[in-house]
Every structure is written in C-alpha cells, then in structure tokens.
Fold:
Amino acid sequence: MRYRFISYFLRLSLAAVVVAGCEELLGPAAGEAGCGVITWSFAPGGINAGMETRGESFSIPDTNAFLLTITSSAGKVLYDGTYGASPTSIMADPGSYTVSVKSEEFAVPAFSRPQFGAEEVVVVKKGETSRAVLHCTQINAGIRLKVAPSFTSAYPSASLKVKSADGSLPYPASETRVAYFKPGAVTVQKSDSGGDETLFSRNIPAQHILTVTISASASGGGGMSLQVDTARVWTGEEFKIGGGNDGGTVSSAISAADVASHAGETAVWVYGFIVGGDLSSSGSRMNTEPPFSSDTHMAISYRSSVTEKASCVSVELKKGDLRDQLNLVSHPDNLGRQVFLKGDIVSSYYGLPGLKNITEWILR
Structure:
C-alpha cells in the first residue's frame, strides 16, 4: 500500500510539472511530457553577406549582442535576452514559435543607426528538433540628402529636415550621414522665415536607403532621375526646386510617384520601372511574376522593387509596335527595366492613375 501511495504521489508531481510547460523540464521528464526542441543559429555569413556600406561609416554589430526573443503563437515568451547569453536549445510544447533577433531597439529617427534583424517561424513536434536559421537584413529604412550649392545660394536662410510619424531630424547642408527611420512614409521639408514647406514625401521600405540630391533652379528647368541598386537597396534621386519635372522632355520626365498630381495633362513624358501587369479593374490584384496573361496593359512604379498595386501607374498598351515591344506576355524580361513613355495622364485606369495614348517610348 505504501509503495502504491508513493508511486501515485510521484505521478501526480510529474503531472504538476508538465502543466508548467515543457521548457521547464529536463531529462526523461521532457520526453514523457511529449516535448520538442528549438535550436537557432545565424545563417552562414551572419549579417555580412551581401552587405554594402557605400561609404557610410558604421560598424557591423556583434551578433552576440543581438536581442533574441522566442515566443509561442499564444504570446508566451520562452526567451528574451541577448543572443550570446542564450542557451543552445529550448524545450517547448508542440506548436508554432517565432524566433526573432535584432541588433538593437530602434524607436525614433536617428543618424547612422542601421538596424539589422531576422524573424523565423518554426513548428515544434513531439520528440523532434526544429531549427531556426536567421538570415539578417536591414530592417529599418534610411534617407540621405545631398544639398547642392544652387540650393544654398537660392535659399541662404533656409534649412532642411526629414520627418516621419515617429519624429523628425534637422538635416544641415553639411550633413553626410544617413538618417534612419522605421519603414514607411518619410517627408522632406524646407524651413525658413515663411514657415515649413513640404518638398516631397517618399514611402521607404525596410532595407532601402534613398539618396536625394536637392538643388534649385532660377530658370525653372531641371528634372528628376531614379535608379535602383541591390543588397541594401540604395535608391538615388535628384530633386530640383523651381519648376522642372513638367514632362515636356525626356530629361524633365514626371516620376511615376508624381503622376497622380498631373492628371489631365496630355502629351507628357513619364518615367518609372516596369513592375507588373494583369491588373484587376477593382481591388488590389496585380501579377508581378511571369507568366502574364494580358498584353493590353502593364504597371510601372517609381521603384523596381514595388509589388503593391496601390503604388503603381497603369499603362495602356495599344495594338502596334508599343504593345509588341513592351507587353509582358511576350517579354517577361522587361520586368524591372526603366521605361520613359510619352502620353496622356488620366485619373483612373484599372483603378489607378494611368497613362494612355502613348506616342513615344524609350526602354532602358
């Protein structure tokens, strides 16, 4: 009788421990409870693989100092601390878990503060080991202004600042550092005795760094150009104050980002990057990968990496040489290429600002 009582007591004690969760068990008790194991590691190369600094001065952070968090799908935190201080594995109940790392906390805009990180979801099964391989990339966004002498000559008392929903940073003409923000809308403003004037806004995704050269033109001429690179995606623009970008010539072509504000204008040049097709007349559907089914239209945007329909301009491809050369059904390799188009801007075509009646084009 005494033996049975002790045996019953031990089983009851084990059951109480199991309720506490697999991560608190060790040895045979874990196996009896039906636990699995989570392990994690950085991908080969850490955060160095494919990274470019483009002259930006910062130190690649020590991965041991990264902040590691392991959380269940129900929100229970299994680990929250530095990567270097973490155990080599954690026992967990069967289920889904998110393993995430970041180089540092980032809450408000700051200069020279690229934030790197990764997030992987693993599914834990009874008696099995699940491994999260963390491929780190830059997870915040950056903007760098290059102020031309023509701007300071035209506006000697003016200053610039960049801002987002999380705060703003003064940007002196002599500043050379990258200003970092959370991904999203970033606005550049000119401030002087007349108050603040918004020059432009851009939606900058994670891992992108936008470099903008700001100049001024007394004659009102000028233009805007855009090109996209790889890795940490560096994008360059030229923004000229005092006219320009009127679409009168190829060199003053209107960016796809600004087409909506030119609705109704005719025979103007617009430029962008071919990003997709097969648009829906309503809703958000847009195909960004081959194969394509419609050769009557395509979508362009101000950046080749755009995949959301709402950030695009629809382009009508009438039958003839235009359709033969640009349609994505026959030429899927046109994806990502820069294109200049001369036509009429309409307020809505496939639910987007659009370009129709194209008479000239240049594909680069």
